[in-house]
Queue: 2 jobs
Job 1
Amino acid sequence: MNPDIRSAIDFYERHPISCEIILARLEASRGHLDGLEPEELFPHDQDHYGGLAANDALAEHAHIGEGTRVADFCAGLGGPARYLAHRYGADVTGIELTPARVKGAQELTRRVGLQDRVRIVEGNVMQVPLADASVDVVVSQEALLHVPDKRRALAQARRILKRGGRIAFTDWVAHRPLSAADRELMWQGMAVTELYTLPAYAELVRDAGFAVASVEDLTREWGAILTQRLAMYRKLREETRAAGTPAGHDAFYESYVRFVDLVKAGHLGGGRLVGVKAE
Ligand SMILES: C[S@@+](CC[C@H](N)C(=O)[O-])C[C@H]1O[C@@H](n2cnc3c(N)ncnc32)[C@H](O)[C@@H]1O
Protein backbone atom coordinates (compact mmCIF):
# COMPACT_ATOMS: atom_id res chain seq x y z
CA MET A 1 0.00 0.00 0.00
CA ASN A 2 1.15 3.55 -0.80
CA PRO A 3 2.66 4.85 2.52
CA ASP A 4 0.86 8.20 2.06
CA ILE A 5 -2.46 6.36 2.03
CA ARG A 6 -1.47 4.31 5.08
CA SER A 7 -0.75 7.51 7.02
CA ALA A 8 -4.20 8.93 6.27
CA ILE A 9 -5.81 5.70 7.47
CA ASP A 10 -3.68 5.65 10.64
CA PHE A 11 -4.65 9.24 11.33
CA TYR A 12 -8.39 8.66 10.90
CA GLU A 13 -8.40 5.32 12.74
CA ARG A 14 -7.48 7.30 15.88
CA HIS A 15 -9.35 10.53 15.12
CA PRO A 16 -10.88 12.09 18.28
CA ILE A 17 -14.40 12.09 16.76
CA SER A 18 -15.87 8.70 15.84
CA CYS A 19 -19.24 7.02 15.35
CA GLU A 20 -18.97 5.53 18.85
CA ILE A 21 -18.28 8.92 20.44
CA ILE A 22 -21.19 10.55 18.57
CA LEU A 23 -23.60 7.80 19.64
CA ALA A 24 -22.35 7.89 23.24
CA ARG A 25 -22.94 11.65 23.39
CA LEU A 26 -26.44 11.32 21.95
CA GLU A 27 -27.31 8.48 24.30
CA ALA A 28 -26.10 10.53 27.25
CA SER A 29 -28.19 13.55 26.23
CA ARG A 30 -31.43 11.84 25.12
CA GLY A 31 -31.33 8.69 27.27
CA HIS A 32 -31.58 6.18 24.38
CA LEU A 33 -30.80 5.90 20.66
CA ASP A 34 -34.22 4.88 19.33
CA GLY A 35 -35.76 6.88 16.49
CA LEU A 36 -32.73 9.08 15.81
CA GLU A 37 -33.36 11.81 13.21
CA PRO A 38 -30.73 13.02 10.71
CA GLU A 39 -30.89 16.52 12.24
CA GLU A 40 -29.72 15.13 15.58
CA LEU A 41 -26.50 13.90 13.97
CA PHE A 42 -25.68 17.12 12.10
CA PRO A 43 -24.10 18.98 15.05
CA HIS A 44 -21.65 16.04 15.40
CA ASP A 45 -20.98 14.43 12.02
CA GLN A 46 -19.67 17.25 9.79
CA ASP A 47 -15.87 16.99 9.68
CA HIS A 48 -15.15 20.20 7.77
CA TYR A 49 -15.17 23.93 8.43
CA GLY A 50 -18.41 25.85 8.17
CA GLY A 51 -20.83 23.03 9.09
CA LEU A 52 -24.11 22.74 7.19
CA ALA A 53 -23.70 26.14 5.48
CA ALA A 54 -20.59 24.77 3.76
CA ASN A 55 -22.70 21.87 2.39
CA ASP A 56 -25.34 24.35 1.20
CA ALA A 57 -22.67 26.36 -0.63
CA LEU A 58 -21.48 23.23 -2.47
CA ALA A 59 -25.07 22.20 -3.23
CA GLU A 60 -25.78 25.60 -4.73
CA HIS A 61 -22.58 25.70 -6.81
CA ALA A 62 -23.13 22.14 -8.05
CA HIS A 63 -26.90 22.57 -8.66
CA ILE A 64 -27.83 19.67 -6.37
CA GLY A 65 -31.57 18.94 -6.12
CA GLU A 66 -34.10 16.12 -5.88
CA GLY A 67 -32.66 12.96 -7.43
CA THR A 68 -29.21 14.41 -8.29
CA ARG A 69 -26.68 11.59 -8.29
CA VAL A 70 -23.76 12.72 -6.17
CA ALA A 71 -20.39 11.15 -5.37
CA ASP A 72 -18.83 12.48 -2.16
CA PHE A 73 -15.04 12.02 -2.32
CA CYS A 74 -13.56 11.24 1.12
CA ALA A 75 -16.95 11.02 2.82
CA GLY A 76 -15.72 10.57 6.40
CA LEU A 77 -18.53 9.60 8.77
CA GLY A 78 -21.02 10.45 6.01
CA GLY A 79 -22.30 13.69 7.53
CA PRO A 80 -22.33 15.75 4.29
CA ALA A 81 -23.72 12.77 2.30
CA ARG A 82 -26.65 12.36 4.72
CA TYR A 83 -27.29 16.10 4.73
CA LEU A 84 -27.40 16.32 0.91
CA ALA A 85 -29.80 13.36 0.80
CA HIS A 86 -32.03 14.63 3.62
CA ARG A 87 -32.13 18.33 2.75
CA TYR A 88 -32.01 18.18 -1.07
CA GLY A 89 -33.27 14.68 -1.91
CA ALA A 90 -29.96 13.74 -3.57
CA ASP A 91 -28.84 10.16 -4.10
CA VAL A 92 -25.32 10.04 -2.64
CA THR A 93 -22.45 7.58 -2.83
CA GLY A 94 -19.61 8.39 -0.45
CA ILE A 95 -16.13 7.08 -1.22
CA GLU A 96 -14.13 6.66 1.98
CA LEU A 97 -10.67 5.19 2.54
CA THR A 98 -10.58 4.42 6.26
CA PRO A 99 -12.42 1.16 7.08
CA ALA A 100 -13.46 2.29 10.58
CA ARG A 101 -15.01 5.44 9.13
CA VAL A 102 -16.84 3.48 6.42
CA LYS A 103 -18.31 1.23 9.11
CA GLY A 104 -19.17 4.22 11.31
CA ALA A 105 -20.75 6.10 8.40
CA GLN A 106 -22.88 3.08 7.47
CA GLU A 107 -24.00 2.63 11.07
CA LEU A 108 -24.98 6.30 11.47
CA THR A 109 -26.80 6.24 8.12
CA ARG A 110 -28.77 3.14 9.14
CA ARG A 111 -29.63 4.66 12.52
CA VAL A 112 -31.37 7.60 10.81
CA GLY A 113 -33.00 5.49 8.06
CA LEU A 114 -31.23 7.07 5.06
CA GLN A 115 -29.64 3.87 3.73
CA ASP A 116 -31.82 3.91 0.58
CA ARG A 117 -30.37 7.23 -0.57
CA VAL A 118 -26.88 7.17 0.98
CA ARG A 119 -24.27 4.48 0.38
CA ILE A 120 -20.79 4.72 1.84
CA VAL A 121 -18.33 2.61 -0.11
CA GLU A 122 -14.81 1.73 0.99
CA GLY A 123 -12.41 3.03 -1.64
CA ASN A 124 -9.62 5.36 -2.66
CA VAL A 125 -10.46 8.50 -4.63
CA MET A 126 -7.38 7.87 -6.79
CA GLN A 127 -9.15 4.73 -8.03
CA VAL A 128 -12.89 5.25 -7.61
CA PRO A 129 -15.08 2.13 -7.63
CA LEU A 130 -17.84 3.76 -9.74
CA ALA A 131 -18.67 3.40 -13.44
CA ASP A 132 -17.81 5.99 -16.11
CA ALA A 133 -20.38 8.79 -16.54
CA SER A 134 -22.49 7.49 -13.65
CA VAL A 135 -22.97 10.64 -11.51
CA ASP A 136 -24.16 14.24 -11.99
CA VAL A 137 -21.99 15.82 -9.31
CA VAL A 138 -18.80 15.19 -7.35
CA VAL A 139 -18.32 16.99 -4.05
CA SER A 140 -15.51 16.84 -1.49
CA GLN A 141 -14.71 18.77 1.65
CA GLU A 142 -11.36 19.32 3.38
CA ALA A 143 -9.99 15.95 2.40
CA LEU A 144 -7.93 16.08 -0.80
CA LEU A 145 -5.16 17.50 1.40
CA HIS A 146 -4.56 13.86 2.39
CA VAL A 147 -4.50 12.60 -1.19
CA PRO A 148 -0.95 12.31 -2.56
CA ASP A 149 -1.98 12.54 -6.23
CA LYS A 150 -4.75 15.13 -6.51
CA ARG A 151 -4.39 15.17 -10.29
CA ARG A 152 -5.40 11.51 -10.36
CA ALA A 153 -8.37 12.11 -8.02
CA LEU A 154 -9.59 14.94 -10.28
CA ALA A 155 -9.21 12.69 -13.34
CA GLN A 156 -11.34 10.07 -11.56
CA ALA A 157 -13.98 12.72 -10.83
CA ARG A 158 -14.06 13.63 -14.51
CA ARG A 159 -14.32 9.96 -15.52
CA ILE A 160 -17.37 9.22 -13.34
CA LEU A 161 -19.17 12.49 -14.17
CA LYS A 162 -21.73 12.73 -16.95
CA ARG A 163 -21.24 15.42 -19.58
CA GLY A 164 -22.11 18.83 -18.08
CA GLY A 165 -21.63 17.41 -14.58
CA ARG A 166 -20.02 19.50 -11.88
CA ILE A 167 -17.29 19.10 -9.32
CA ALA A 168 -17.50 21.40 -6.29
CA PHE A 169 -15.02 21.01 -3.45
CA THR A 170 -13.17 22.73 -0.66
CA ASP A 171 -9.62 22.02 0.38
CA TRP A 172 -6.58 23.43 2.13
CA VAL A 173 -4.32 25.66 0.06
CA ALA A 174 -0.82 27.01 0.73
CA HIS A 175 -0.66 30.71 -0.12
CA ARG A 176 3.10 30.56 0.50
CA PRO A 177 5.45 27.59 0.49
CA LEU A 178 5.69 25.96 3.92
CA SER A 179 9.05 25.55 5.60
CA ALA A 180 10.43 22.00 5.64
CA ALA A 181 9.76 21.87 9.41
CA ASP A 182 6.10 22.89 8.99
CA ARG A 183 5.59 20.43 6.14
CA GLU A 184 6.96 17.67 8.33
CA LEU A 185 4.81 18.75 11.29
CA MET A 186 1.64 18.74 9.14
CA TRP A 187 2.55 15.36 7.68
CA GLN A 188 3.35 13.72 11.02
CA GLY A 189 0.42 15.28 12.90
CA MET A 190 -2.37 15.24 10.29
CA ALA A 191 -1.19 13.23 7.25
CA VAL A 192 -1.13 16.36 5.06
CA THR A 193 0.40 15.76 1.61
CA GLU A 194 1.37 18.30 -1.07
CA LEU A 195 -0.64 21.54 -1.05
CA TYR A 196 -1.18 24.00 -3.90
CA THR A 197 -1.75 27.73 -4.14
CA LEU A 198 -5.29 28.62 -5.18
CA PRO A 199 -4.30 29.61 -8.77
CA ALA A 200 -2.25 26.40 -9.13
CA TYR A 201 -5.21 24.35 -7.86
CA ALA A 202 -7.49 26.02 -10.43
CA GLU A 203 -4.92 25.13 -13.10
CA LEU A 204 -4.97 21.51 -11.92
CA VAL A 205 -8.79 21.43 -12.22
CA ARG A 206 -8.50 22.88 -15.74
CA ASP A 207 -5.79 20.37 -16.69
CA ALA A 208 -8.05 17.55 -15.52
CA GLY A 209 -10.55 18.54 -18.24
CA PHE A 210 -12.95 20.91 -16.45
CA ALA A 211 -14.03 24.44 -17.30
CA VAL A 212 -13.38 26.34 -14.05
CA ALA A 213 -16.67 27.94 -12.99
CA SER A 214 -15.49 29.61 -9.77
CA VAL A 215 -12.59 29.88 -7.34
CA GLU A 216 -13.09 31.38 -3.88
CA ASP A 217 -10.59 32.07 -1.15
CA LEU A 218 -12.06 30.93 2.21
CA THR A 219 -9.01 31.77 4.33
CA ARG A 220 -10.54 34.65 6.31
CA GLU A 221 -13.74 32.69 6.92
CA TRP A 222 -11.73 29.71 8.16
CA GLY A 223 -9.62 31.83 10.56
CA ALA A 224 -12.61 32.48 12.83
CA ILE A 225 -13.91 28.91 12.58
CA LEU A 226 -10.51 27.43 13.40
CA THR A 227 -10.21 29.40 16.62
CA GLN A 228 -13.43 27.73 17.81
CA ARG A 229 -12.28 24.30 16.61
CA LEU A 230 -9.01 24.67 18.47
CA ALA A 231 -10.96 25.39 21.66
CA MET A 232 -12.97 22.19 21.04
CA TYR A 233 -9.79 20.13 20.48
CA ARG A 234 -8.26 21.64 23.64
CA LYS A 235 -11.28 20.42 25.59
CA LEU A 236 -11.12 17.00 23.91
CA ARG A 237 -7.42 16.84 24.75
CA GLU A 238 -8.21 17.39 28.42
CA GLU A 239 -10.84 14.63 28.25
CA THR A 240 -8.51 12.20 26.46
CA ARG A 241 -5.70 13.01 28.91
CA ALA A 242 -7.99 12.10 31.79
CA ALA A 243 -8.89 8.84 30.01
CA GLY A 244 -5.27 8.10 28.86
CA THR A 245 -4.18 9.95 25.71
CA PRO A 246 -4.31 7.70 22.62
CA ALA A 247 -1.16 7.32 20.52
CA GLY A 248 -0.68 10.12 18.02
CA HIS A 249 -2.96 12.59 19.75
CA ASP A 250 -0.10 14.84 20.92
CA ALA A 251 1.33 15.06 17.38
CA PHE A 252 -2.15 15.90 16.06
CA TYR A 253 -2.67 18.61 18.67
CA GLU A 254 0.74 20.18 18.12
CA SER A 255 0.28 20.31 14.35
CA TYR A 256 -3.25 21.67 14.70
CA VAL A 257 -2.07 24.57 16.89
CA ARG A 258 0.55 25.41 14.25
CA PHE A 259 -2.00 25.03 11.44
CA VAL A 260 -4.29 27.60 13.10
CA ASP A 261 -1.35 30.01 13.47
CA LEU A 262 -0.40 29.55 9.81
CA VAL A 263 -3.97 30.23 8.67
CA LYS A 264 -4.18 33.34 10.82
CA ALA A 265 -0.86 34.52 9.37
CA GLY A 266 -2.23 33.96 5.84
CA HIS A 267 0.32 31.28 4.90
CA LEU A 268 -2.20 28.46 4.80
CA GLY A 269 -5.89 28.72 4.07
CA GLY A 270 -8.85 27.27 2.29
CA GLY A 271 -10.41 27.41 -1.13
CA ARG A 272 -13.65 26.41 -2.81
CA LEU A 273 -13.36 25.40 -6.47
CA VAL A 274 -16.05 24.52 -8.96
CA GLY A 275 -15.54 22.91 -12.36
CA VAL A 276 -17.82 21.76 -15.17
CA LYS A 277 -17.13 18.73 -17.34
CA ALA A 278 -17.44 20.32 -20.74
CA GLU A 279 -17.54 17.24 -22.96
C1 LIG B 1 -11.43 15.78 7.22
S1 LIG B 1 -12.23 14.26 6.83
C2 LIG B 1 -13.57 14.92 5.91
C3 LIG B 1 -14.79 14.05 5.93
C4 LIG B 1 -16.01 14.59 5.20
N1 LIG B 1 -15.66 15.12 3.89
C5 LIG B 1 -16.72 15.66 5.99
O1 LIG B 1 -16.70 16.82 5.57
O2 LIG B 1 -17.31 15.35 7.05
C6 LIG B 1 -11.20 13.53 5.57
C7 LIG B 1 -11.59 12.11 5.17
O3 LIG B 1 -10.89 11.76 3.97
C8 LIG B 1 -10.63 10.37 3.99
N2 LIG B 1 -9.57 10.10 2.99
C9 LIG B 1 -8.27 10.44 3.03
N3 LIG B 1 -7.62 10.02 1.93
C10 LIG B 1 -8.54 9.40 1.13
C11 LIG B 1 -8.49 8.76 -0.14
N4 LIG B 1 -7.34 8.67 -0.83
N5 LIG B 1 -9.63 8.22 -0.65
C12 LIG B 1 -10.81 8.29 0.05
N6 LIG B 1 -10.91 8.88 1.28
C13 LIG B 1 -9.80 9.45 1.82
C14 LIG B 1 -10.21 10.13 5.43
O4 LIG B 1 -10.26 8.76 5.78
C15 LIG B 1 -11.22 11.02 6.18
O5 LIG B 1 -12.35 10.29 6.55
Note: Residues 219-243 form the longest helix (25 residues).
Job 2
Amino acid sequence: MKLYTYFRSSAAFRVRIALNLKGLTYETVPVHLARSGGEQHQATYRALNPASLVPTLDDEGLVLTQSLAIIEYLDETHPQPSLLPGSPADRARIRAIANAIACDIHPINNLRVLQYLQRELRADEVARNAWYRHWIEVGLTAVEAMLSDDVRTGEFCHGDTPSLADCCLVPQVFNARRFNCPLDAYPNVVRITERCEALEAFCLASPANQPDAE
Ligand SMILES: N[C@@H](CCC(=O)N[C@@H](CS)C(=O)NCC(=O)O)C(=O)O
Protein backbone atom coordinates (compact mmCIF):
# COMPACT_ATOMS: atom_id res chain seq x y z
CA MET A 1 0.00 0.00 0.00
CA LYS A 2 1.05 3.57 -0.68
CA LEU A 3 -0.18 6.43 1.51
CA TYR A 4 -0.10 9.93 0.06
CA THR A 5 0.38 11.96 3.18
CA TYR A 6 1.75 15.13 4.75
CA PHE A 7 3.38 14.85 8.15
CA ARG A 8 1.21 17.54 9.74
CA SER A 9 -2.07 16.56 8.08
CA SER A 10 -4.48 15.41 10.74
CA ALA A 11 -6.62 13.53 8.20
CA ALA A 12 -3.55 11.57 7.08
CA PHE A 13 -2.55 11.14 10.75
CA ARG A 14 -5.89 9.33 11.31
CA VAL A 15 -5.13 6.85 8.55
CA ARG A 16 -1.54 6.34 9.73
CA ILE A 17 -2.87 5.42 13.18
CA ALA A 18 -5.35 2.95 11.69
CA LEU A 19 -2.68 1.33 9.50
CA ASN A 20 -0.39 0.96 12.53
CA LEU A 21 -3.14 -0.42 14.77
CA LYS A 22 -3.80 -3.05 12.12
CA GLY A 23 -0.09 -3.82 11.79
CA LEU A 24 -0.10 -2.95 8.08
CA THR A 25 3.06 -1.75 6.39
CA TYR A 26 2.87 0.94 3.75
CA GLU A 27 5.03 3.21 1.66
CA THR A 28 4.91 6.91 2.49
CA VAL A 29 4.47 9.24 -0.49
CA PRO A 30 4.87 12.81 0.80
CA VAL A 31 2.61 15.53 -0.64
CA HIS A 32 3.86 18.89 0.59
CA LEU A 33 0.84 21.08 1.28
CA ALA A 34 2.80 24.33 1.37
CA ARG A 35 5.66 23.94 -1.11
CA SER A 36 5.31 24.99 -4.77
CA GLY A 37 1.86 26.46 -4.15
CA GLY A 38 0.80 23.18 -2.60
CA GLU A 39 1.65 19.85 -4.23
CA GLN A 40 -1.92 18.72 -3.55
CA HIS A 41 -3.01 21.05 -6.39
CA GLN A 42 -0.72 19.53 -9.01
CA ALA A 43 -2.49 17.72 -11.83
CA THR A 44 -0.81 14.39 -11.13
CA TYR A 45 -2.08 14.37 -7.56
CA ARG A 46 -5.51 15.75 -8.47
CA ALA A 47 -5.93 12.81 -10.82
CA LEU A 48 -5.75 10.59 -7.73
CA ASN A 49 -7.71 12.81 -5.38
CA PRO A 50 -10.05 15.25 -7.17
CA ALA A 51 -10.55 17.25 -3.97
CA SER A 52 -6.79 18.05 -3.83
CA LEU A 53 -6.63 16.91 -0.22
CA VAL A 54 -4.53 14.34 1.61
CA PRO A 55 -4.66 11.49 2.41
CA THR A 56 -5.03 9.14 -0.54
CA LEU A 57 -4.42 5.41 -0.15
CA ASP A 58 -3.35 3.27 -3.09
CA ASP A 59 -3.96 -0.38 -2.27
CA GLU A 60 -2.36 -2.25 -5.17
CA GLY A 61 -3.97 0.06 -7.71
CA LEU A 62 -7.22 0.63 -5.84
CA VAL A 63 -7.22 4.36 -5.10
CA LEU A 64 -9.16 5.45 -2.04
CA THR A 65 -9.83 8.95 -0.71
CA GLN A 66 -11.46 10.43 2.42
CA SER A 67 -9.80 9.36 5.66
CA LEU A 68 -12.91 7.92 7.30
CA ALA A 69 -13.82 5.91 4.20
CA ILE A 70 -10.21 4.66 4.02
CA ILE A 71 -10.24 3.59 7.67
CA GLU A 72 -13.57 1.78 7.25
CA TYR A 73 -12.14 0.05 4.15
CA LEU A 74 -9.11 -1.06 6.16
CA ASP A 75 -11.38 -2.24 8.95
CA GLU A 76 -13.44 -4.34 6.54
CA THR A 77 -10.46 -5.80 4.70
CA HIS A 78 -8.38 -6.37 7.87
CA PRO A 79 -11.00 -6.90 10.59
CA GLN A 80 -8.65 -7.43 13.56
CA PRO A 81 -8.29 -5.48 15.75
CA SER A 82 -11.68 -3.95 15.02
CA LEU A 83 -11.88 -0.16 14.92
CA LEU A 84 -15.68 -0.31 14.85
CA PRO A 85 -16.45 -3.00 17.40
CA GLY A 86 -19.69 -4.00 19.07
CA SER A 87 -23.35 -3.64 18.22
CA PRO A 88 -24.92 -1.27 15.69
CA ALA A 89 -25.51 1.12 18.61
CA ASP A 90 -21.84 0.94 19.60
CA ARG A 91 -20.72 1.59 16.04
CA ALA A 92 -23.13 4.51 15.73
CA ARG A 93 -21.62 6.10 18.83
CA ILE A 94 -18.06 5.57 17.60
CA ARG A 95 -18.97 7.12 14.24
CA ALA A 96 -20.75 10.00 15.97
CA ILE A 97 -17.62 10.93 17.94
CA ALA A 98 -15.47 10.52 14.82
CA ASN A 99 -17.83 12.71 12.79
CA ALA A 100 -18.05 15.35 15.54
CA ILE A 101 -14.33 15.80 14.91
CA ALA A 102 -13.87 14.99 11.22
CA CYS A 103 -17.03 16.74 9.96
CA ASP A 104 -17.75 19.43 12.55
CA ILE A 105 -14.31 20.67 13.65
CA HIS A 106 -11.64 19.79 11.11
CA PRO A 107 -13.06 21.13 7.81
CA ILE A 108 -13.59 24.69 9.01
CA ASN A 109 -10.02 24.92 10.30
CA ASN A 110 -8.43 23.32 7.27
CA LEU A 111 -5.50 24.94 5.45
CA ARG A 112 -7.55 26.10 2.46
CA VAL A 113 -10.13 27.73 4.75
CA LEU A 114 -7.40 29.57 6.66
CA GLN A 115 -5.85 30.61 3.33
CA TYR A 116 -9.21 31.92 2.13
CA LEU A 117 -9.63 33.92 5.36
CA GLN A 118 -6.18 35.41 4.83
CA ARG A 119 -6.13 36.00 1.08
CA GLU A 120 -9.74 36.80 0.21
CA LEU A 121 -11.21 38.13 3.46
CA ARG A 122 -7.97 39.81 4.59
CA ALA A 123 -8.17 38.34 8.08
CA ASP A 124 -4.89 38.94 9.91
CA GLU A 125 -3.10 36.31 12.02
CA VAL A 126 -4.86 37.39 15.23
CA ALA A 127 -8.26 37.01 13.58
CA ARG A 128 -7.35 33.68 11.98
CA ASN A 129 -6.14 32.29 15.31
CA ALA A 130 -9.33 33.49 17.00
CA TRP A 131 -11.34 31.69 14.31
CA TYR A 132 -9.30 28.52 14.79
CA ARG A 133 -9.57 28.50 18.57
CA HIS A 134 -13.28 29.32 18.50
CA TRP A 135 -14.17 26.27 16.40
CA ILE A 136 -11.87 24.05 18.44
CA GLU A 137 -13.67 25.23 21.60
CA VAL A 138 -17.14 24.67 20.14
CA GLY A 139 -16.20 21.26 18.79
CA LEU A 140 -14.23 19.90 21.73
CA THR A 141 -16.94 21.07 24.15
CA ALA A 142 -19.34 18.79 22.28
CA VAL A 143 -16.87 15.90 22.16
CA GLU A 144 -16.13 16.24 25.88
CA ALA A 145 -19.88 16.08 26.63
CA MET A 146 -20.22 12.97 24.44
CA LEU A 147 -17.42 11.33 26.41
CA SER A 148 -18.29 12.45 29.93
CA ASP A 149 -22.03 11.73 29.75
CA ASP A 150 -21.76 8.11 28.61
CA VAL A 151 -20.84 4.99 30.58
CA ARG A 152 -19.51 3.42 27.38
CA THR A 153 -16.50 5.74 27.56
CA GLY A 154 -13.59 3.76 28.94
CA GLU A 155 -9.84 3.99 28.71
CA PHE A 156 -10.52 5.07 25.15
CA CYS A 157 -13.43 6.94 23.53
CA HIS A 158 -15.50 3.77 23.41
CA GLY A 159 -14.56 1.04 25.84
CA ASP A 160 -11.05 -0.13 26.54
CA THR A 161 -9.68 -0.58 23.03
CA PRO A 162 -8.84 2.10 20.44
CA SER A 163 -11.48 2.73 17.78
CA LEU A 164 -12.14 4.97 14.80
CA ALA A 165 -13.08 7.70 17.30
CA ASP A 166 -9.59 7.65 18.85
CA CYS A 167 -8.02 7.74 15.37
CA CYS A 168 -9.80 11.09 14.93
CA LEU A 169 -9.40 12.47 18.44
CA VAL A 170 -5.61 12.33 18.77
CA PRO A 171 -4.81 14.27 15.54
CA GLN A 172 -7.41 16.92 16.45
CA VAL A 173 -5.82 17.40 19.87
CA PHE A 174 -2.42 17.63 18.17
CA ASN A 175 -3.82 20.52 16.10
CA ALA A 176 -5.36 22.17 19.16
CA ARG A 177 -2.04 22.05 21.00
CA ARG A 178 -0.24 23.40 17.95
CA PHE A 179 -2.50 26.46 18.00
CA ASN A 180 -2.16 26.82 21.80
CA CYS A 181 -5.84 26.13 22.45
CA PRO A 182 -6.54 25.71 26.18
CA LEU A 183 -7.60 22.13 26.94
CA ASP A 184 -8.34 22.33 30.69
CA ALA A 185 -12.09 22.18 30.08
CA TYR A 186 -11.83 18.78 28.36
CA PRO A 187 -10.50 16.30 30.94
CA ASN A 188 -11.78 13.19 29.13
CA VAL A 189 -10.40 14.40 25.80
CA VAL A 190 -6.97 14.95 27.38
CA ARG A 191 -7.00 11.71 29.40
CA ILE A 192 -7.92 9.57 26.39
CA THR A 193 -5.43 11.34 24.14
CA GLU A 194 -2.63 10.68 26.63
CA ARG A 195 -3.71 7.03 26.91
CA CYS A 196 -3.55 6.70 23.11
CA GLU A 197 -0.21 8.46 22.90
CA ALA A 198 1.28 5.79 25.16
CA LEU A 199 0.62 3.23 22.40
CA GLU A 200 3.26 2.62 19.75
CA ALA A 201 0.71 2.72 16.93
CA PHE A 202 -0.22 6.30 17.78
CA CYS A 203 3.34 7.36 18.55
CA LEU A 204 4.72 6.07 15.24
CA ALA A 205 1.91 7.84 13.37
CA SER A 206 2.63 11.23 14.94
CA PRO A 207 3.84 14.11 12.77
CA ALA A 208 7.29 14.19 14.40
CA ASN A 209 7.90 10.56 13.42
CA GLN A 210 7.13 10.90 9.72
CA PRO A 211 9.84 10.70 7.05
CA ASP A 212 8.73 14.10 5.68
CA ALA A 213 8.72 15.81 9.09
CA GLU A 214 10.35 19.25 9.13
N1 LIG B 1 -12.47 14.98 4.57
C1 LIG B 1 -11.12 14.81 4.14
C2 LIG B 1 -10.31 15.99 4.60
C3 LIG B 1 -8.90 15.95 4.08
C4 LIG B 1 -8.18 17.25 4.36
O1 LIG B 1 -8.81 18.28 4.62
N2 LIG B 1 -6.84 17.21 4.30
C5 LIG B 1 -6.08 18.41 4.54
C6 LIG B 1 -4.92 18.12 5.46
S1 LIG B 1 -5.47 17.64 7.05
C7 LIG B 1 -5.54 18.93 3.23
O2 LIG B 1 -5.15 18.16 2.38
N3 LIG B 1 -5.50 20.25 3.07
C8 LIG B 1 -4.96 20.86 1.91
C9 LIG B 1 -5.59 22.19 1.63
O3 LIG B 1 -6.39 22.68 2.44
O4 LIG B 1 -5.25 22.75 0.58
C10 LIG B 1 -10.56 13.52 4.72
O5 LIG B 1 -10.99 13.14 5.81
O6 LIG B 1 -9.72 12.86 4.07
Note: Strands lie at 2-5, 27-30, 56-59, 62-65.
